[in-house]
Amino acid sequence: MPSTPPKPPTDTTGPATEQQALQEALARLLAPVAQLAVARGLPFAAVEEMFKLAFVQAADRAHPDLLAHRKVSRITTATGINRREVTRLTQQAPREAGHSRSLASEVFGHWRTQQPYRGPDGLPRMLPRQGAAPSFESLAQSITRDVHPRSLLDELLRLGMATWDDSDDTVALTRDIFVPQGDRVQQLGFLGQNAGDHLSAAVDNVLGDNHAHFEQAVFATGLSAASLASVRPAVRAQWQTLLAALVPALEACVQADSLMQPAAQGRLRVGLYTYQEGADASQAGDATPGSAPAQPVPARAPRGRPRKT
Length: 309
Fold this sequence. Notes:
Elements: H1 15-39, H2 44-62, H3 68-79, H4 83-90, H5 103-113, E1 127-128, H6 136-143, H7 149-158, E2 162-165, E3 170-173, H8 184-207, E4 218-219, H9 225-257, E5 307-308
Antiparallel strand pairs: 1-3, 2-3, 4-5
């Protein structure tokens, strides 16, 4: 009686494994999205509608040369969304991602990085509100002359980023990172822009072959609350160094490129982030939303040993 032929070895690198990894990655990405939606009272139906529209638009961009009469069928095949829904959604104009200027953040960045608004110790000076440079008036006018300096000061005061001493008419920064306090709309705007650009960079790197975007992270586990707290000052110092180096260089590039015809359309976002959990993660300190998610470290990594991903 013939023996049963042996089963071929399981392919652990094939499509099934990649699909599983994709689903696990998406689950990690969607968990904080669901947390935010639930916390802010956004129902699932609204998120589902946005997700369906994003799927349809992604499939549409993936096949830009399709004839109109074939587009609906192709998008339905690519997404699994029925033809009626695809037809409805393709009639909606794509929403452009918002990249409007934040004049308050520009004033803040200029104040922290540019002479003569920094003192000999490198920290931002206390400034007279009006008068010749260095004053808040001259600082604001170096950013824009379309908005009155007092309006920009009022915005920084509202966001809790600065104080005004009316006894001697001076203003001072109260924070070293631009994190608007009490302005949920602006905080959500930063979240979408920072985390959205970072996720776009990571996805581009995964789907492409040239790894066009810098996207790295360091990961460690098995840390105490004291160890977590000890790292924050070093991270903040690195951010200040990066900020001081990049802001003047980018402002010079913007100034030079503003003379180009046709107008330059490129944009850049550079970020630094930390995320911690366990060991009293609530003491995380100030941070701006989003910048560069770490890829998971394999379970075999030695406990507590930092890994670059």
